[in-house]
Please model this.
Amino acid sequence: MQKPNEIREHIVAVEQTRKITGAMEMISSNRMRQVMAHIEYNLEYFTYIRRTMKEILSSSQDISHPFLTVRERHHCTYMVISSDKSFCGAHNSNVLNYALDLIGQHSESALITIGHTAEAFFHAHNIIPDICLLGIVQDPTIRNARDVAETLIDLYESGLTDEICVVYTSFHGETKRQPVMRRILPVLLPDYDDIRDAEIMDRISYLPSAQTVFNMMIPQYVVGFVFGVLVQAYASEHSARMLSMHSATTNARELIDRLKTEYNLARQSAITNEIAEIAGAAEVLREAQGHEIEYGVRT
Model:
């Protein structure tokens, strides 16, 4: 059994850890609540854009755009989103291992990483990212989403890649808190199978033309797509960190309770030993005094 002083120092250390994990839990909870509004607004906006694009693609055969063409070379660029920080359970390992499996199945691919952990992970697996975007995952704003979207559009328009997919942790629907892969470009009609309430084209008039409206919506579509995955990845990260820190805080409380019990037992044992030592010493003194008295009487 440890000494009472050692247990007391252990209790102080665990208590400090509990305060840190509790504070991290509160911070992640607050940030997740803040970003939830962005997720709801983006879903509504993005759904409306996709509905309109499906209306145009479904009802007109004259729509053409470079982003609608399936290329034959099949070179794919994967954009993998992780967090900049750890302490979020299996959040990073799940999405990064999932991305690693996808990349391994593709013979021709390029890699874009968003987040420090993604960059370090692929370096550890001898895969050098072609583009590393840092500081974006902790600031999922429209401005940053537009910068990322412009980078992706430039890659696709220049012919350096034939397909762009994003790998991230979802925070919506049946795939909530699970790693998923979504194609950003090219834009294909099957991508809109989940849109059920698209209107018929002959009921809507687009000015100056459906083609012009579609050309203007394509960049907004990519920006909305990127912003959506950024905020979902951000919310998933803080949700995982909140749960992880809550578990750590609970474990710390339980450990403190056990340590306090051990401390009380150790302290009681030490007091008992001290009492036994005092009683033993007193008995020795009484016996010594008795021998001295007996010796004095005899003499």
Observations:
- The chain has a mean pLDDT of 82.
- The beta strands are 76-81, 109-114, 131-133, 163-169, 179-185.
- The chain has two domains: 17-248, 251-298.
- The CA atoms of residues 4 and 263 lie 6 Å apart.
